Amino acid sequence: MTARKSAPNGKRSQILRAATDVFSAREFHTVPVDDVATAAGVGKGTLYLYFPTKEQLFYATILEALDVLLAELESAVRGRTGEDALRAFTRCFVDFFWTRRHLAVLMGRYEHKQREPEGESWRLRRQKVLNLARTTLLAETRAARLGTADALLAAEMLLALIRAAVINQRERADPERSVTLVVDLFLNGLRGLRLSLIHISEPTRL
Questions:
Q1: Rounded distance between C-alpha atoms, residue 180 and residue 80, angstroms
Q2: Do 100 and 91 form a contact (C-beta atoms < 8 A)?
Q3: Residues 18-25: contacts with CB within 8 Å, 24+ apart?
Q4: What 3 state SS string does 14-77 have?
Q5: What is the average per-residue pLDDT within 11-35?
Q6: Closest CA to 121 of 173, 180, 62, 163
Q7: Whole-prediction pTM value?
Q8: Is 101 strand, coil or helix?
Q9: Contact 135/158 with Cβ under 8 angstroms?
Q10: Could you tell me which residues come within 8 angstroms of residue 194 by beta carbon, excluding any fewer than 6 positions away?
Q11: Are the C-beta atoms of residues 1 and 59 closer than 8 Å to each other?
Q12: Percent residues over pLDDT 90 in the chain
């Protein structure tokens, strides 16, 4: 499920950026290819030269989004340690998908495709995100003693919490509130969350 390599990168990137915007705003099955072509400023025939099927366009859009996300995550945590790094990672992840909720839903819905032969590129990118989450966690004092397997499991749990916060966001909700909930719940559990809930529910501090 890859685009034709002979295509110039500039036009391909232009189409992928438009596809990301369109797929982020609407359900995948409701988006005609014509709408992506219009958003990209190209004809439908030109789009099909790069991506012969809607599924190939979707897959390439996922890879593009993961590449951008990984670069932003690496930048966000660079030079940070401890809980500061964890919050920066979570904030960057939440911010990235906050306006791309439909894309997050779509990635979750088709996550099983990572196990298919053509899903290797997706698997590799997700593994990089997971490894970065693990490294960020191990910079936090309370997680530093985790073994390799436990650290990977903890990283998966963190990503699951972030995804849940994005997918279940309420209308006009504040993403920073979700960041605080995710990090505090992850580090302190439900028993330690009460003070954080009181703190972030005060309108003057949102």
A1: 17
A2: no
A3: 19/57, 19/58, 19/60, 19/61, 20/61, 20/64, 20/65, 20/100, 20/103, 23/58, 23/61, 23/102, 23/103, 23/106, 24/99, 24/100, 24/101, 24/102, 24/103, 25/102
A4: HHHHHHHHHHHHCCHHHCCHHHHHHHHCCCHHHHHHHCCCHHHHHHHHHHHHHHHHHHHHHHHH
A5: 85
A6: 62
A7: 0.79
A8: helix
A9: no
A10: none
A11: yes
A12: 43
Q: CA-based Rg of the chain, rounded to a whole angstrom? A: 19
The answer to whether the beta carbons of residues 4 and 43 sit under 8 Å apart is no
Per-residue pLDDT at 3 exceeds 70: no
- 5-19 mean pLDDT: 76
| Structure tokens that stand for 90 in this block | 């979570």
**Contact of 50 with 15, CB cutoff 8 Å:** yes
Mean pLDDT of the chain: 84
Q: What is the pLDDT of residues 135-144, one digit of tens each?
A: 998 887 666 6
Separation of first and last alpha carbons in the chain: 43
The identity of residue 25, as a single letter, is A
User: According to the model, what pLDDT value does residue 155 have?
Assistant: 94
Task: Identify the pLDDT of residue 4.
Answer: 42
